Amino acid sequence: MTLLTFNASVFCLEELTKGLHKQLICFSVINIVIAFTTIAGNTLILIALPKVTSIHPPSKVLLRNLVASDLCVGIVEITIVIYWISIVQEWWQICRHFYFAHVIGATISLTACLWTIIAISLDRLLALLLGLRYRQVVTLRRAYVAVIIFWLFPSFGSVGVGFCSHEAWELLLITSIVLCLIISIYCYTRIFLRLRHPQTHIRDSAQEQANQTIPMNITRYKKTVSIAMWLQLALLFCYFPYVVVAPFAYREIQTRQSSAFFLSLHATVTLMFCNSTLNPILYCWKIKEVRREVKDAAINLFS
Q1: How would DSSP label each residue in 156-179?
Q2: How much is the pLDDT for 86?
């Protein structure tokens, strides 16, 4: 069964959504608020980032890509709101079109978010392991190539798989989320152990005597790791319920037309969208320069 057939035959059935109109209206209101908050917050961050000088250029490219993908998530979220409204109004043809648009848009933007989070984790680990070679290995050009791949693969790979098989698409999306969590946990565990290792402190003390700029670099590095870890924790909080619920929900919706699993699935999807709203808040909280530039950009926009 292809993804298109699956959507048309299951997710826009009156029998599946009958009696859920109040819940869908509630979902729509919540997601409209989340969508516009996401769009506004990430737009301000995109305006502010070019003026931030404290972030290494390749790392800034990855951060800007995460912000851009979060912005796309906010735009895609509007399509699922229209999908829910079409169910309430019983516009079944519109329902099919907008659910399908939502699936394609969410697959591309959410996968880009996941891959960028993985890249940020690896970037922080490489910065610690490579030392002086880091700037030679992690270049601006390679960062841009990685970003292009992050958008091309979900556009042609994930969506292409979805056209062939809904089950394969579901497995690929859940695998991407789990892989992101595993790789990120591995990276931050390595970073934590390396920074806590006694030999690291001895080496850092020797370097400090030779070069007084090292302590400042280590301090800045720990701050960037802290930012990356908070982004990862926010993603874990928002994405993990979907990983748990989705495999059961899709099967129950397809085989039994379960309204309870239909609501549960869309509740976890809404929580995933919340991640793109939380990230701008984390940038402003953890990066002082970003907070200052966002404040100036907001004043200029609304003055």
Answers
A1: IIIHHHHHH-HHHHHHHHHHHHHH
A2: 93
Residue with tokens 């800034």: 60
Sign of the C-alpha dihedral, residues 141, 51, 238, 100? negative
Top pLDDT among 283 and 8 is at 283
Cα–Cα distance for residue pair 220/281, rounded to 1 Å: 20
pTM of the full structure: 0.87
* Angstrom distance (rounded) from CA 190 to CA 302: 44
Rounded-to-10 torsion of CA 280, 154, 114, 75: 20
| Least confident window among 83-92, 117-126, 157-166, 168-177 | 157-166
* Mean pLDDT, rounded, of the chain: 84
For 48, 153, 207, 300, the CA distances from 296, given in Å and listed in that order, are 8, 36, 39, 6
Q: For the segment 184-217, what is each residue's pLDDT rounded down to a tens digit? A: 889 998 888 888 764 554 455 444 444 444 444 6
Helix and strand counts by DSSP (H, E) for the chain? 13, 0
User: pLDDT-based confidence at 3, cuts 50/70/90?
Assistant: low
Residue pair 275/235 in contact by the 8 Å Cβ criterion? yes
CA gap 115, 135 in Å, rounded: 21
Closest-CA residue to 280 (of 74, 130, 9): 74
Q: 254: exposed, middle or buried (C-beta count within 10 Å: 0-12, 13-18, 19+)?
A: middle
Both tokens of residue 250?
């899709």
Q: What's the CA gap between 272 and 93, in Å, rounded?
A: 26
Amino acid identity of residue 155, one-letter, is S
Place of tokens 């999306």: 173
- 103 in Cβ contact with 162 (< 8 Å): yes
- How many Å apart are CA 150 and CA 232, to the nearest integer? 18
**11-22 per-position pLDDT tens digit:** 888 888 888 899
Q: Which amino acid is at 110?
A: L
